[in-house]
Amino acid sequence: MVGYELGEQGWQAEIAWPDRLTAIVLSGSTGDPETEDRDRAFGAAGWHARTARDWSADDIAELIERTNGSAHG
Amino acid sequence: MSEATLGVIDRAEKEIMKLSRTDIGAVYEFMHKFRNNPDQPGLDLKTLHGDTRLMAARIKRDLRALLLHLGQREYLLVGVDRRSTVYEDLSRYAYQINRVTGGIEVIDTQPVGDSIIGRVLPAAPVPLFAGFTDVQLVELGVAEPLLPEIRGLTDEDGLMTLLDRAPQLTVDVLFALFDGKTYELVLEEITTPVRSAEPVDVDDFEAAVRRPASQVATDDEALKFMLAESFQAWQIFLHPTQRRLVERRYSGPARVGGGPGTGKTIVALHRVTYLAQQLPPGPGKPILLTTFNRNLAADLRIRLRALGGEDVLARVEVVNIDRLAAQVLSEGDERAPKRKIDDGQVPQLWRRFLTAEVGDCPWDPDFLAAEWDQVILGQALVSRAAYFKARRPFRGRNLTRPERDQVWDLAERFSRWLTAQDLITWRQVAVRAAALAVHRYQHVVVDEAQDLSAAHWRMLRAMVPAGTDDMFLTGDTHQRIYDNRVTLGSLGINIRGRSSRLTLSYRTTRQILAAALEIMSGEVYDDLDGGQEDLAGYRSLLRGAQPAFRGAATWAAERDLITEQIAAWGTPSDGSAAICVPTRELAADVMAHLEAAGLSPVEIGPDGPKQTGGVHVGTMHRFKGLEYQQMIIAGVADGLVPRRMIDRYRSGDPKRYEKERQRDRSLLFVAATRARDELAVLWHGTPSPFLTERLTQATG
After folding, report:
1. Among residues B593, B581, B563, B592, which one has the least CA distance to residue B637?
2. Is the ipTM of this complex over 0.90?
3. Which of B328, B300, B304 minimizes the C-alpha distance to B315?
4. DSSP notation for B378-401
5. Per-residue model confidence as pLDDT tens digits over B215-264
6. Which of B388, B393, B403 is the closest to A10 by Cβ?
7. Does B394 contact A8 at a Cβ distance shorter than 8 Å?
8. What's the CA dihedral at B85, B86, B91, B96 to 10 degrees?
9. Binding residue per annotation — B260?
10. Which of A1, A11, A73 is opposite residue B391, by nearest beta carbon?
11. CB neighbours of B14 closer than 8 A, spacing ≥ 6?
12. CB-CB neighbors (< 8 A) of A5 in chain B
């Protein structure tokens, strides 16, 4: 799913696979409390949320492969 | 015969402020006459009981001035009192030069006490300050004449009673000790910073009166506060904790928060004056003083003129934020729409737009209106990409990227549709102005900062270069009555480490404050920088009657309670009493009813009360920034407070419902804290759910 919002606070992920609690998030400037709070919120909800850079290309390829294109929801 | 100088010490100012307006006028007359010639027979100046310094003089038939003769032709007004008390019991007044600060202190050692009947006293009371010796207390700066009384204190109520009339340093020290600080810590944090730089001669009153610690107003300052409409608002003497915030260099934006009546506005005004005085001489207005509300901006201008004079005012632009935004927009883009519309009309306009231009639309007009107003304009988002990136907290419904794309398309069409009709909402004005603003000030001071939107902040940020003393904000999120949520850091205004809070209320009595805090209970507010703010430590040194809570069966019966209450207060007609209701209809009805009862009601309009005298009547929105000695809040009934119309959000948009409900609760809190001495809260039928059972059953 493109443009996922987590909870009432609406923490954003660029791309998310809600059924697998996996998401790609935007990188923020270091020390930005928004970014820190977002990562904490995804973590607390049991998600694996990382920036595109932190996921390895293989990881992402595998994610896309497994969901077989349904990530474009 | 020759002229004399007559200063006014802070405790006398407080006593004068408690008088009626007529009596204040008499004190003013007295001071004028006294300065011309203190020996004229009509003033009846005499020393009392053989004391060489303490003197009394006649203000009017039943009112006496208590004076301290400092030397030669120099006098200090230290109190005003009814004739009987002054002459009969002058020995109760003690005066001294404080050994620590070198300031003059005048203390009433035996005030008329409150009744303690009915209060349950603990079985074996332990004196509060048993852990400290007299020598220690005096070394910390406590006034010696109060020591016997301090030794008898066993509970907080007693302490508060005493602190009502104790000198400033005594108050600060005793509070800190009461809060559990050690002798060493109090010495370091409170006493040492105010210690006189030079050795103190405890007999030299002429030297003492010149020390800032004496908290003495000069002739000119005294005159200003006497002439002021809203005298309490003057607060010529900043508390040391306030002064510290005013006279200081900040490396970047700074904010001062605090509950109602803690003197935030006065701090803002003193700050502006201070900044203006640091400027090199020159033309132009390098300082901006702004606030949300048009009323308050007008009020700030008047007060700034009185505080700083024409010289200060000449260097300061005082304007409300929307007017400033409109100026920026019209100067920067002459083709911008001219017809400004109220943001409250947005949902209605969206409905019309969807019907006329879109037809079959899967989106709810109220949702789109709120999304546009709160997210797109609220966060000042000016591009599709910015909207995609924006977080949308508490919007009740999550959106995917394709959905945001659709919403953005509709928002752009809506905006073009408005422009085609030469229409623009105030929030749009602010967003457009933010993009056009350029540096034009050196310092920006914002009062009631909690009311400004993200776009306003962006505009202000663009108007002042980042640097030392660039921005100074005062605001209190508990008084938030407009619904902007904003994080300053994200707008380039970083106040971290430069944020402070005032906790001492100068306006409201402890009794009224307690009721107001109970009304607010359970609500959590964010401060402007994302953290949560509470009212912990918020306190008052003023004491008064318990507020009255009374219900009636019908509105007609409640109106009678209003007239009864006004009569019980002696039918004040000098603008010191006000009636506050939730709706315009009720306000009109109260006006008519008072008129019929032979009173002279004065409506509080968008620009404030239309006249200064009479009994003021207005809706809750109008009371922000105002203050009254006596206040009735009527119509605090279920269905009116909070407004019944918000019930429609209850099931469909629970977040919105909570937000609106919180807003109405804030309005009631703001109204309650406008009362200085006495407050009556009335309702008909079922009381408002904001009034706890404890409150509604407190009085009959």
Report:
1. B581
2. no
3. B304
4. TTT--SHHHHHH---TT-SS---H
5. 777 655 555 555 554 444 455 567 767 878 898 899 999 999 887 778 88
6. B393
7. yes
8. 130
9. yes
10. A11
11. none
12. 392, 398-399
